[in-house]
Amino acid sequence: MNSPSSPNTNYLLLAAFLLFSQSVLTVSRNLDLKLLRQLNHVGKDDSPTYIWPLPLQYTSGNQTLTVNPNLALFTSGNGGGSRIVSQAFERYKRIIFEHASLKLPTAGVDYDLSKLTILVHSDDEELQLGVDESYNLLVAASNAHSVIGEITIEANSVYGAVHGLETLSQLCAFDYGTKTVKLYNAPWYIQDKPRFEYRGLLLDTSRHYLPIEIIKQVIESMSFAKLNVLHWHIIDEESFPLEVPSFPNLWKGAYTKWERYTIDDASEIVEMHFKLFHIKSAEAFSLSSYEYECSNSVITKIQLLQKIGINVMAEVDVPGHAESWGTGYPDLWPSSSCREPLDVSKNFTFDLISGILSDMKKIFPFGLFHLGGDEVNTGQYLLDFLPVVLITVTTSICRLQDHSMSAKDAYKYFVLRAQEIAISLNWTPVNWEETFNSFPTSLNPKTVVHNWLGAGVCPKAVAKGFRCIYSNQGFWYLDHLDVPWESVYYTEPLEDITDASQQKLVLGGEVCMWGETADASDVQQTIWPRAAAAAERLWSAPESGSSRNSTTVLQRLEYFRCLLTRRGVPAAPVGYAFSITNASEHYLTDVKFEGAYVEEEKPTYKIVTLQKLVSPYGNVFQFFCLKTDTASVLLEASASIQALQDQIEDMLHTLSGKQTTMLTGEKRSNLSKQGIVLSTISRS
Amino acid sequence: MNSPSSFNPDSLLLAAFLLLSQLLLTTSRNIGLHQLNYHGADDSPTYIWPLPSQYTSGNQTLTVNPNLTLFTSGNGGGSRIVSEAFDRYKRIIFEHASLKLPSSGIDYDLNKLTILVHSDDEELQLGVDESYNLLVAARDAHSVIGEVTIEANSVYGALHGLETLSQLCSFDYGTKTVKLYNAPWYIQDKPRFEYRGLLIDTSRHYLPIEIMKQVIESMSYAKLNVLHWHIIDEQSFPLEVPSFPKLWKGAYTKWERYTIDDASEIVDFAKKRGINVMAEVDVPGHAESWGTGYPDLWPSSSCREPLDVSKNFTFDLISGILSDMKKIFPFGLFHLGGDEVNTDCWTSTPHVQQWLQDHNMTAKDAYKYFVLRAQEIAISLNWTPVNWEETFNSFPTSLNPKTVVHNWLGAGVCPKAVAKGFRCIYSNQGFWYLDHLDVPWELVYYAEPLEYITDASQQKLVLGGEVCMWGETADASDVQQTIWPRAAAAAERLWSAQESGSLRTTVLERLEYFRCLLTRRGVPAAPVRNFYARRPPIGPGSCYRQ
């Protein structure tokens, strides 16, 4: 849970507002089901306000206020002068007042709201896990007590203030009738903070290169849903796009010489340089040529840094998923024909990891660093699974014997040594759950366990005192297109964890946008709107979704999806079982989601089962150079099933009294290619 | 063909450059696809899309200064359209963070871009001179520093020149500089057709303004020049019409609308990128949503399409809409639809049936009457009417001779239309309907607007062509990847000389490169090689091989 500390309660201004607003409020409610229903009701009448994700606590009224397109910003507090705040204000002003009609001169119009005060207590701009993201948002109406209405955002950190601006932007909507921006259901008093401190989205730039412009679009859209960690899975077996100055041959592993990131590109993504006037908004916002030219020169002369409150956690996935490293340094491969995992026997391997991490430390200030450690493949599980079959593992690597290590020991050795490197650089290591499943007692106690395979891992990890990130692939793997939004939404990171102190060890969760079938052309519509469903789970109090009153949630989610499209984000339709597909693509018409959705038929579940079969918990090193992407897993699984069928056939023949085994030479060699040699167990 | 008038031959500067460049050229070729391909395979690729009509290139690689300075001359050189475009392309060419760091003391080969625009007339219309010359002179014994020069008759030609320049440059990750390959370059370019359109449909699904701007911006990368805005249809009426304020009650929701200011902003945004906006008001069919605000437009409340031909109110309202739209859409062509009219409601509704009898008209006569009356309204507002081909197929001799016939049903219509002296726009649905997802890029590419038209004077009556992004299954979430990359295939057909498409492998390679260029610029263009359009990539891999 790790909720940030609440804002300073002594603050006089806030107290005054509270007092003031209490007298004005017409409706006062705490977060409960009635509230949701009321929100729903409000949605249906003429003055909708849909906030996504839902704030922790709020009260609203029934006034409709007009907002001045030339809304003026007043800042106070130690952090009020921060450029992060003023730039965020400009960004949201463009969003709230996007319509051309608002850019025309409007002399003589009286608006209810002309002033926004942002009060930020701390001037510490360091962005880290656990930074105070809470904020209060007050919209006081015009009434007998005050001649003009006021909007006030109060936060302890600038990042809380940015969240407050996002919420404010969602309270406003353009009224096409009067051609003004209106703020509905005022007065508002919102007290908000995230439920979890880690609210992540994984992007994979190895399976497909994502251009910088696309990554920036993703980051910007994350801020709309109050997600706060971009988990950048930069490198994998397919390609190595990142520049590493210490080992300049590494990015030879990129797909092409154009599909790369320089260290400056990476820094830019972390720092998120936003052009002060976005290319598209620039002309749209041609209030005056002076302003345009002014901003334009700013773009070219001073590069403006715009932090929008999103951490970037880099991943270097070792020892598996690293084949592409060897393009530049073939010594990293165990042999040129067997290229994964990284060669555990050479010190060079670890020198290189150390070099990569040192270079990356200069780019990624975030406290967590992901070391992967997943899907190191083997046939070991088959051995347990098929006791009737005698399996001989053929191994081509014998060096392990010198260290009296089993392959499993070497896997542990590798992971722990990589952890040490990360820790020596003052990073907290994050590892995929296989490391915890294989050697829980050996892992560094600082380790954050990153769940993915299925349910039940976080409970085990936090019981042992580890921190945990929840990404159950059955629900939060966005590349699983057959997971509809409800499944994403109703997933619970704290499932099966009842002890409060253990609950606090769950940092949060992350939706994973693996890139095998998602590239620049479809990544955004595969992410959205389902990532938003997870974002509300991670931000809002659990009760807000506890009633399976899905019409309300659905209505709000549909509204949020349209909000994304208005802001230029190509978010997919909400109501289909298969994301990024379209109503009338023929192959989908008969399986279109209409509530009659059959869970058992989910291919995802089948793939998960197969993954467990082929690439299970507690594995040893892969000797067979097997790939671990879904397609390879399926291929391997089908080969294994074929092996079983052959075995059964063989046994049947033997049982029926025929002397010779039916396994022909060809079939035998096919099996031994997989590292499996089968022989019949004698009958007796 | 309607090719723009050729360049002012007096231009001394150009003559000087021509002379100079002749001296420097190491390779000289016309549309040399073999060579271009060769360059693609080696270390210094240059893929231009769409291919210019004439060019020569060399074998030098030049570095480009990230602080490239703009010098303008000519009557139109001071235009803000030019300087804003320069800033846009500077951001595109120098997108990489490494280039934004201070880099004192480095010598670049190219530090200066001169844009020479002869005319200061910024009016954007069909047939505006879009030609340009682009010269990249290398450093050598004759000149100490290299120069880049764009010369154009209009600002819109200069915009195309900037686009081409941006495609000559690419970021070199090794040296972290922007390089211009295969210099020196001399490019003389102009479009094959004056009308190179893309239809978008905001009635079947509302497209937010931000998304429309993204589409317009991406059109300029492929040198398309007409956005055919199919604003209204039977499903929804999103546009504000001040004369008849209830019309946009036919919008899906109160948020899915365009104010007249929104529409003006879109027109203005497009103009700055050299793109015309042709509006469509599709009558008398495809208009059910009109009746939400004015139920009198329906023949009856149970039979709602086509618009009631028997009432003068119908035509008063069309007149009101068009008058209001005239203030927003300055483009000379206006699309009046006229397609897929099912007249059953006219013959089955008593008062319309009575009217038909009174006027001694069949339903087909009434259809003609409606279309011609709408044409008159458009013509009285000084618009050239465009109509879908059914109008021509039904009553070719009655159509106003100014009519531009918009083909869609199949092949063979443009030949018939131009034979009768009408102008024609080619949009054969078998190839150029982008909502047909089973049409791969090759079919789009090899479709030919001048098919079956051999007479040169008749060929000139084909204004060009248009790819149509109908919106039944395309909304904000997938419109861009349904448009791209296939619209680019049509864009080259419409821009480049016919011969340029004769080598398939090269075209694919260049198209893949252009698709990746689009993604780099933030446009979610779909993989090229998938048989079905807009499908995700089938597995991991490079953008340049998908």
Q: How would you describe what is shown here?
A:
The complex is a heterodimer of chains A (684) and B (546). Chain A has 684 residues and is α/β, with parallel strands linked by helices. Chain A is built from 23 helices and 16 strands. Chain A has an eight-stranded mixed beta sheet with strand order 1-8-4-5-3-2-7-6, with helices on both faces. Chain A has an eight-stranded parallel beta sheet with strand order 11-10-9-16-15-14-13-12. In chain A, β4 (135-140) and β5 (149-155) form a beta hairpin. In chain A, α2 (33-44) packs across α19, α9 runs parallel beside α11 and α21 (603-614) crosses α22 (630-655). Chain B is built from 18 helices and 16 strands. Chain B has helices at 12-24, 33-41, 80-93, 155-168, 209-221, 260-271, 312-326, 344-348, 350-358, 363-380, 389-394, 413-419, 429-432, 441-446, 456-459, 479-483, 486-495, 504-520; strands spanning 54-56, 60-73, 110-117, 132-137, 146-152, 169-172, 177-183, 185-189, 195-201, 226-230, 276-280, 333-335, 384-388, 404-406, 423-426, 462-469. In chain B, the strands form two sheets. Chain B has an eight-stranded mixed beta sheet, with helices on both faces. Chain B has an eight-stranded parallel beta sheet with strand order 11-10-9-16-15-14-13-12. The radius of gyration of chain B is 25 Å and the shape is elongated. Chain B starts with 11 loop residues before the first helix and ends in a 26-residue tail after the last helix. Chains A and B meet through α5, α6, α7, α8 and α17 of A and α3, α5, α6, α16 and α18 of B. Chain A: Keywords: Glycoprotein, Glycosidase, Hydrolase, Signal. Chain A: It catalyses: Hydrolysis of terminal non-reducing N-acetyl-D-hexosamine residues in N-acetyl-beta-D-hexosaminides.
